[in-house]
Write a structure and sequence with these properties.
heterodimer; A: 396 residues; mainly alpha; 2 domains; two-stranded antiparallel sheet; 15 helices; 2 strands; 63% helix; B: 272 residues; alpha/beta; six-stranded mixed β-sheet; 11 helices
Chain lengths: 396, 272
């Protein structure tokens, strides 16, 4: 029993304290605002990265990049007949650069441009391809019959005299590898999650769970190395296909990287299904397998789906494994042909491009594309998860 | 006060059905249960007859739920549980080595304290157990689902929304759905672990009416904290205290003329 408060002592402030608002707990108030700012900064960060990537890709959108090998030239003597804007574009200068160069430098640059055109090898003079700006959308997305080919082809060949920037082989390659990876990883990871969360004895669970999660700690370059040397040989022996390093091997290796991601989230989702459902099913005479498959898994579907979406994000963004296992940008839907993914392309080529050049712009375009794809997949995933949840909870 | 109220309830109740002649349906012989080293049930022996409602009462932690869960071996799911003694249902030792727990649970259904319908439609909740046990044809399922829902007095409330989620039902309806789900597979025994403790008085009275109705077809064992409920619905009552069975007998006797001092103290509300 606590002693009764003495009634003759009135509270020191009476009702005054009630008007202090947030000042009553300034530290809590500050902490809350701080956390809010931190979370805001995450959004700002994502936005800034996207703006940066998109800005670098902008010239492709506006058709400002030009890769035509043979371009119309302006004789040095006709310098004064052209407007500054025309000259600036002709010489590939930014407005600031154009302003800072004096007349003599301008003349030298014009001469340089002429020399450059004169250096174009003779055999390209008659080649129609040499006059094409390959950064136009038409050449980025549609097949084109390049000279020397007997039919229209999708070709990514960003080096050489005539640079071919068709991004379709890269998109197909990415999808191929990602889908194989997911097809391999999702059943295994979800199966393991069901086993660990529903069927395994506690002692087995304590071993298996950390081991699978440890997989995610293996650097992807090591997984790639393993796939390149061991997995590729083993799989070729089993399936007997021709190209040793192909999208199939890359996809399986990618699966290893994705399994722990999907496993850990799916396992959490399955474990958090109320025990009451399991008990009800068992009391009805369901076996543990039936309970896991028919009751627990359907109840955890939103979480399992979320795990898959996250796995997709990880797979589509994974660079190193695909880079090490296969990277020929052939246009083929066959999983036993090579493939080059978007991320691989960016990682492998970004170091060798001229900053601000057409190739550089196209790589940023690919980056923006990847960003958009991940964003859209997450949006769709979120939408589907909400539908699942509402359905389970009986909301319309 | 509680004493007179409960006595009134008991007096109003129809006389208990005469126990069936012959061997008791459920024989619990000298059962002890250990959670690790601690002994949760101490040498309990109890015989229950067929088609009778038996109430297990007692203060929290007295082992009444634990004993209930021994009857369909739900305690198997908990690690570190050891059971000594013998439980026979219809002459079969349910802890014998060759017993299929799944077959046992088909015959001994259970309703839990917290209503736990599956996150599926109302129809699927009832049909799930039927499908588990091999019923496939749509017309059979439809008929069995309707019959179970009628027996659990839920049909009229849900017949127009059989295919909407069971989680959209009220607490009392959910609990009656759980009863429908349990009786759909036609068990011999229904175990109820405080089935009305989370419900309001009106929903509780509907469940109680339902239990009295189900008594015609099923043997019911019910754990309850609510002594008035035990007095209203049960024919036999067993009083447990800290893992021991203190007294077992006809409900009227337990509540009006108990032979043990502790039983009297508990049913009159002096402790518990």
């Amino acid at each position: 029993m606590t002693p009764e408060p003495k009634s003759e002592q009135p509270r020191p402030h009476g009702w005054i304290g009630i008007h202090r608002g947030h000042k009553a707990r300034p530290v809590e108030w500050l902490a809350e605002k701080f956390i809010f700012l931190v979370s805001l900064s995450a959004i700002a960060m994502v936005l800034l990265i996207f703006l940066f990537v998109a800005r670098e890709a902008m010239p492709v959108f506006f058709g400002e990049a030009n890769t035509a090998l043979i371009q119309p030239t302006i004789p040095v003597a006709e310098l004064d007949k052209h407007s500054p804007a025309e000259l600036q574009r002709y010489l590939d200068l930014t407005p600031e650069q154009y302003k800072s160069v004096d007349h003599d430098t301008l003349l030298a640059l014009m001469q340089g441009k002429l020399d450059e055109q004169n250096e174009v090898p003779e055999n390209f003079r008659k080649d129609a391809d040499a006059r094409i700006n390959t950064t136009e959308w038409k050449y980025l997305l549609q097949s084109h019959q390049w000279s020397g080919y007997d039919r229209p082809e999708y070709i990514w060949q960003p080096v050489g005299q005539i640079k071919k920037f068709n991004i379709i082989p890269l998109i197909v390659g990415t999808l191929k590898v990602t889908l194989i990876g997911l097809l391999f990883a999702v059943p295994l990871a979800v199966g393991a999650a069901i086993y660990v969360s529903q069927l395994a004895r506690p002692r087995v669970r304590e071993v298996v769970k950390p081991v699978i999660e440890m997989l995610s700690g293996i650097p992807s370059v090591v997984v790639g190395f393993f796939a390149l040397l061991v997995l590729a040989t083993v799989l070729q022996k089993i399936f007997g296909y021709q190209t040793r390093l192909n999208a199939f091997v890359a996809g399986i290796a990618l699966g290893f990287a994705v399994i722990p991601v999907i496993f850990s989230i799916a396992e959490d989702a399955l474990t958090s299904v109320p025990r009451a459902y399991t008990q009800a099913a068992l009391a009805l005479g369901a076996s543990r397998w039936q309970t896991a498959w028919q009751i627990v898994l359907p109840a955890a579907i939103p979480g399992v789906f979320a795990a898959t979406v996250l796995g997709f994000g990880r797979a589509i963004g994974e660079t190193m494994i695909v880079l090490m296992v296969c990277s020929a940008s052939v246009m083929s839907w066959s999983i036993f042909d090579s493939a080059r993914s978007i991320t691989t392309t960016i990682a492998a080529e970004m170091g060798e491009v001229v900053a601000g050049g057409p190739h550089y712009r196209i790589l940023f375009l690919l980056g923006a594309l990847l960003f958009a794809a991940t964003f859209v997949s997450n949006m769709i995933g979120d939408f589907v998860i909400h539908r699942f949840k509402n359905k389970l909870e009986g909301k319309r | 006060m509680a004493e007179t109220l409960i006595q009134k309830i008991v007096a109003q109740q129809a006389p208990a059905a005469a126990p069936a002649a012959g061997a008791p349906f459920i024989r619990i012989e000298d059962v002890s249960l250990y959670y690790g080293a601690s002994k949760a049930l101490k040498n309990i022996s109890l015989n229950l007859d067929e088609k009778v409602v038996t109430a297990f009462i007692g203060p929290s932690g007295c082992g009444k739920s634990t004993l209930l869960r021994c009857l369909n071996r739900m305690n198997d799911l908990i690690d570190n549980v050891r059971i000594d003694g013998c439980i026979k249902i219809g002459g079969h030792d349910i802890y014998a080595g060759d017993v299929d727990v799944i077959e046992l649970r088909k015959r001994v259904g259970m309703v839990f304290q917290k209503s736990n319908p599956f996150p599926k439609s109302i129809y699927e909740n009832v049909a799930y157990g039927l499908r588990l046990h091999g019923m496939k044809s749509k017309s059979d399922l439809d008929a069995a689902v309707e019959q179970s829902l009628r027996s659990s007095a839920l049909w009229d409330e849900v017949k127009d929304r059989l295919h909407s989620s069971a989680l959209g039902l009220s607490g009392g309806q959910q609990q009656r759905l759980c009863i429908a789900r349990a009786i759909a597979i036609k068990p011999d025994i229904i175990l109820m672990d405080e089935p009305a403790s989370a419900l309001d008085p009106i929903a509780t009275s509907r469940i109680e009416e339902l239990i009295l109705e189900l008594k015609k077809d099923f043997t019911i064992v019910i754990v309850t904290h609510n002594m008035q409920q035990a007095a209203r619905i049960s024919d036999q009552t067993a009083f447990f205290y800290i893992g021991e069975l203190i007294e077992f007998g006809p409900t009227a006797k337990i509540f009006t003329n108990p032979s043990q001092k502790r039983t009297e103290d508990y049913v009159t509300g002096r402790f518990g």
